[in-house]
Structure formats: C-alpha cells, structure tokens
Amino acid sequence: MVLRIAIQKSGRLNEDSMKLLKECGIDIANGVNKLRTEASNFPIEVYFLRDDDIPQYVEDEVADIGFVGENVVYEKNKKVEVVEQLGFGKCRLSIAVSRNEVYNDVSYLHGKRIATTYPVIVRKFMEEQGVDAEIHEISGSVEIAPGIGLAHAICDLVSSGSTLFMNGLKEVETVLKSQAVLIKSSHLNEEKQRLLDKLLFRIKAVKRSKNNKYILLNAPNDKLSEIIGLLPGMKSPTVLPLAESGWSSVHSVLKESDFWEIIEKLKEAGAQGILVVPIEKMII
Ligand code: ATP
Ligand code: MG
Q1: Cα 11 to averaged position of ligand 2 atoms, centre (Å)
Q2: Which residue in 7, 89, 118, 127 could disulfide with 180, CB within 3.0 to 4.6 Å?
Q3: pLDDT by residue (tens digit) across 144-169?
C-alpha cells in the first residue's frame, strides 16, 4: 500500500513542495520530465500535475492527497478536505483598478466588469458584499484587461504587488489570503490514513522548527532569574554552569516572531555571547 500524492509539476509550488517532502526525510528521485515517481524510503508515490487539476484528481481518488494553493481549492470547489496549511506559496487574491480611478469602497464595482481567472471565488465575494458586477472569465494576462478596455477591474493573485504597479493598477480589496495546503480525499482507508498521519507528524515537526530558533547565551549568575524570566522555552530553559565561576550558560527555544524583541531585552539584562541556531526538526 502506498500513499499517492499530487504536487505541481512546475511553477511556483513545485520547488517548495519537493523541499518539504525532503525535509520530512522522504527521498524522491526527481527524474527530468518524469510525471510519476516513488520514494525510496517511505511508501509514497508522487504524481506531478498542473496545479488546477490536483483537486479533481484527489476528489476522484486517483491521488490520495495533494499539495495545492487554497485559491485553487476554493475555485475548483471539489469534494476534498483541507488538512493542513503548509506555510509556503503565500499570496492573496485581490481586486485592482486603474491607478487613476477614485475608489472608496466595493460599491464602486456595481455594474462594472471584472476580469479574472477565479470566477467562482469572485462571484461568491460579490454576492457576500451585495455588489452586482459582471464577471468576465479569462485564462491569463489578467493585468492588461483594464488597459485595453476589456474590464474596469481585475481580480488576480498578488504577492509583492509589483506586477500590478507595472501595469498601472492599484490593489483595492483582498478577496482571499492564500497559501499552499495539504488536501486529502474523503475516502482514505485506514491504512492510507495511518500513512498520512505519519507524514503529517513529520510536516508539523518541520513547520514548527521553521517557526522557532534555538538560543544559547551566557548569563552572570546574579542576573540569571531575570534572564530566565524573559525566555519561554519548550518546558523551561536549560541552565548549565560555565567553567568561569559566577556565570551560567542558558539554552532555550524562541519563536521566530518574538525573536528580536526578546534578544534586545536579554542584552539589556546582561546576557552575553548570544548564539541563535536554526532547528532542523522539532517534536513536542
Ligand atoms: P500550472 O502550470 O501548474 O497550472 P500556474 O501557472 O497555474 O501553474 P503558478 O503561477 O505556478 O501556477 O502558481 C501556483 C500557485 O502559487 C498559485 O495558485 C498560488 O497558490 C501560488 N502563488 C504564490 N504567489 C503567487 C503569485 N505572486 N502569483 C501567482 N501565484 C502565486
Ligand atoms: Mg494552474
């Protein structure tokens, strides 16, 4: 029995999808132009597909699970379950209009034409907002639609916003925040579910390790309790005596997001020789 996973063949999600599997200790021979391959050390088979097709393959049980953007999952609206956010492929689906337009709120879009490759998501958003707009589905090059008189507005994926800017557009509404997710079929048998649980255990350990750093520092003993008070730690920090008397070495784990603020306070409290080290895997 193998778990069949569908990932993007080439494009923005391919590299990070392969990397995540590798970080989970799964060795995949990535033969050039191979559409299907197996791992040598985990019962998993990988199918390389267009991202648009992944939800359908999972609904049809041709693949058991898949890595794909939430934007594609909601647009395709197939019978699949979203199991875990993967932390890469972050972007947003936004509405943009020409930079010269005066835009105050969504009511601007009343009676206007919006060009998009995401008609399902945009229609739902317009309904929720009570706006009656015409949705014009196109399959690419969405950004040029306003400039050539095809539409008044567009709805497209944005990460930095530089493509919009270059095309004389400004972002006015966020319709959806998206990242890559793991989806699964609703009909996994027990054995496949067990394999998925095993994979998920590893994925969570990898994600956690990315959000955390290991920190080591030297503290004068008279400042030890103040310094320990600043450190969260998985349970509590580890404290070891240094060879030099009156000093201790303190080890702990820090959230990446709290990192700079805590480092500053540690320095102020008298910590020295602070080392911050990446964590490869983190099991709690
Ligand atoms: P495919 O050939 O597989 O259909 P594609 O051209 O549809 O590829 P990509 O452009 O590779 O797709 O994007 C894949 C996914 O990457 C998107 O669906 C989205 O979830 C995510 N993504 C992240 N940032 C961006 C961005 N700036 N623009 C577009 N997609 C992004
Ligand atoms: Mg696609």
Answers
A1: 8
A2: 89
A3: 999 999 999 999 999 999 999 999 99
Closest protein CA for atom 7 of ligand 1: 51
Domain boundary among 188, 209, 230: 209
11 lines ligand 1 (CB under 6 A): yes
Dist. CA 11 → ligand 1 center (Å): 6
Tally the domains of the chain: 3
Question: Does the C-beta of 178 come closer than 6 Å to ligand 1?
Answer: yes
Tokens standing for 170? 């400004």
Verify whether ligand 1 is closer than 6 Å to residue 157 (CB atom).
yes
Q: Each residue of 254-279: pLDDT tens digit? A: 998 888 999 999 999 999 999 999 99
- Indicate whether 77 and 98 sit together in one domain: no
Whether 16 is in the pocket of ligand 1, judged by its Cβ within 6 Å, is no
Q: What's the pLDDT band for 284 if we cut at 50, 70, 90?
A: confident
Whether 217 and 203 share a structural domain: no
The count of residues in the chain is 284
- C-alpha 246/C-alpha 244 separation (Å) is 7
Answer yes or no: do 187 and 153 share one domain: no
For the stretch 166-179, pLDDT in tens is 999 999 999 999 99
As given in the structure block, the two tokens for residue 75 are: 């647009």
Give all strands of the β-sheet with 134-137 in edge-to-edge order: 134-137, 113-116, 153-158, 91-98, 169-178
Q: Specify whether 142 is located in the same domain as 265.
A: no
**Side chain identity, residue 1:** M
Instruction: Note the pLDDT tens digit of each residue in 68-92.
Output: 999 999 999 999 999 999 999 999 9
Do 97 and 171 lie in a common domain? yes
**Which mutation among 67, 91, 182 tests ligand 1's pocket best, with the greatest number of atoms within 8 A of CB?**
91
